[in-house]
Amino acid sequence: MRAAVIPKVRSRWQVEDVPVPKPAANQVLIRIHASGLCYSDVHLTNGDLPIPIPFPLTAGHEPVGEVVEVGEDVNTRKKGDRVGVPFLQTSCGRCEWCQRGKPLYCEKQQGTGAQLQGGHAEYMLAYAGATMLLPDEITYEQAAPVFCAGYTVWVDYELPIQNHMNV
To answer: Can you give the C-alpha Rg of the chain in angstroms?
Structure first.
């Protein structure tokens, strides 16, 4: 598959051929239909964010697409589902921040396009419990940007997030 890879901090993105990932337990493989660009991708590339980034990395924390494969123990998603993936996919669930319902501050958070490979690619993995079903009435292009600021604000202030790895 083709992916926009950031080889190292403060480097140019490179479009590369990389292997299509295989979903592990509790994960789904998504064929990406749209992936929004955000200035956070620039901050990530420049090393401006106070979080560890495992370069080389495929950025993109506003991905939407179609589930094409499901991993073991996934029963909440099926092939053909239209889904979006927010930044936060999982957290430790045990630290003070997680217990207070603020997993975006967890030191062990796993974010799309940061600690986990993102959506600026033809395919990406996501934890099934972190995906959100898209209504049929919204296009992929309309949905992608909502998974950045819109979803992040909603989650951080409204939803009690749980550890998606154990959903």
So the answer is: 15
Residue 18 is which amino acid?
V
Q: What is the pTM of this model?
A: 0.87
Please list, in sequence order, all residues whose beta carbon lies within 8 angstroms of the beta carbon of residue 39, skipping any fewer than 6 positions away: none
User: Which residues, 6 or more positions from 98, have their beta carbon under 8 angstroms from its beta carbon?
Assistant: 91, 92, 106, 161, 163
Alpha helices in 100-147 (DSSP H): 140-143
Per-residue b or e along 18-52, where b marks 16 or more CB atoms closer than 10 Å to that residue's CB? eeeeebeebbbbbebbbbbbbebbeebbeeeeeee
CA 6/CA 50 separation, integer angstroms: 17
More confident residue, 39 or 15: 15
Q: Among candidates 60, 57, 51, 70, which has minimal Cα distance to 32? A: 60
**pLDDT of 128 above 50:** yes
Strand partners, 34: 64
**pLDDT surpassing 90 at residue 157:** no
Instruction: Tell me the C-alpha distance between 28 and 72, whole Å.
Output: 9
Tell me: the pLDDT tens digits for 80-100? 999 999 999 999 999 999 999
